[in-house]
Specification:
The protein is mainly α. The protein has eight helices and no strands. α1 (about 20-50) packs antiparallel against α2 and α3 runs antiparallel to α8. It is elongated and about 95 Å long.
């Protein structure tokens, strides 16, 4: 009679499994956490879209942030769902789908980073155009206004390239006959704030009429583009760390899923051998 095949650890094949519970449930927990995050992202996106009635809100962006959040959340939900079910059910098809999706996303992010570095001038012009549109729609939406004010205060800047960019806005435009009280002015967020007890909230009034050096005594005259570029250059290590922080979970997911796929394949081969051995004990 043929002898029964023994597993690597000495147990019978019926008791042995190549699939590691540690890898299986670690991958499940990993996906479950990001599955919850995806649900939260979708919920926030839906809420923001419903609550935002003004269609001009953040009109300078190519894609509505709320819609982008919903799309990313839904994609993340579907991918992590494949990972969750695939790991629990030991389904190779779902696990391969999960692994391939993560690989594609990782490659797209890497390609985008390389292209952004190579074509930095074009990226700069795109950001400049985006900021110019933001300036144009400054008074159209309170959220956009707060966002621009926050950026100008944090970076000590004014406008996209220079403070006169605020003429792009109909309220701050310097053309003669502009009935706005803010004609030829800049927002208060451009002002150089001193430690005086009484803050002059009208310090930006008529600043566009002044020359660069003269205006520089009262407001920040440098544009936000240069300030943003300088900030990026001085924080490359931090930005690189953030990029790594986003990449590591993807690499971990790909690594664990590939290990589990190989273990499941080995287990299937073992089961095939056992079936053949039972049907043909002399084989």
């Amino acid at each position: 009679m043929g002898q029964r095949r023994r597993a690597p650890d000495g147990r019978d094949d019926e008791e042995f499994t190549f699939v590691s519970p540690v890898v299986k449930y670690l991958l499940f927990i990993f996906n479950f956490l990001f599955w919850i995050i995806a649900l939260v992202m979708v919920a926030i996106g839906v809420y923001a879209r419903i609550m935002k009635h003004a269609e001009t809100a953040l009109a300078f962006l190519t894609v509505d942030p709320a819609v982008m959040l919903m799309v990313v959340g839904i994609l993340m939900f579907l991918i992590t769902f494949c990972g969750c079910v695939g790991s629990l059910r030991e389904n190779i098809c779902l696990l391969q789908t999960f692994c391939v999706c993560l690989t594609i996303i990782f490659m797209l992010q890497l390609t985008a980073g390389i292209l952004g570095f190579i074509f930095s001038d074009k990226a700069r012009s795109k950001v400049t155009a985006m900021l110019n549109k933001a300036v144009t729609h400054y008074r159209d939406d309170l959220d956009l206004q707060n966002l621009i004010d926050f950026g100008q205060v944090e970076f000590n800047c004014c406008g996209g390239v220079t403070y006169t960019d605020w003429s792009r806005n109909i309220y701050f435009n310097c053309e003669e006959g502009n009935p706005s009280r803010e004609s030829c002015s800049v927002p208060f967020s451009c002002c150089i704030v001193t430690k005086e007890k009484v803050i002059n909230t009208m310090c930006g009034q008529g600043m566009q009429k002044l020359e660069y050096l003269e205006a520089g005594e009262f407001i920040h005259t440098n544009g936000c583009i240069d300030k943003l570029v300088d900030w990026i250059h001085s924080n490359l290590f931090i930005l690189g760390g953030i990029a790594m922080g986003l990449a590591i979970p993807q690499l971990v997911g790909m690594f664990l899923s590939q290990i589990l796929i190989n273990q499941i394949k080995d287990q299937i081969e073992l089961q095939k051998y056992n079936q053949k051995h039972r049907s043909d004990p002399w084989g």
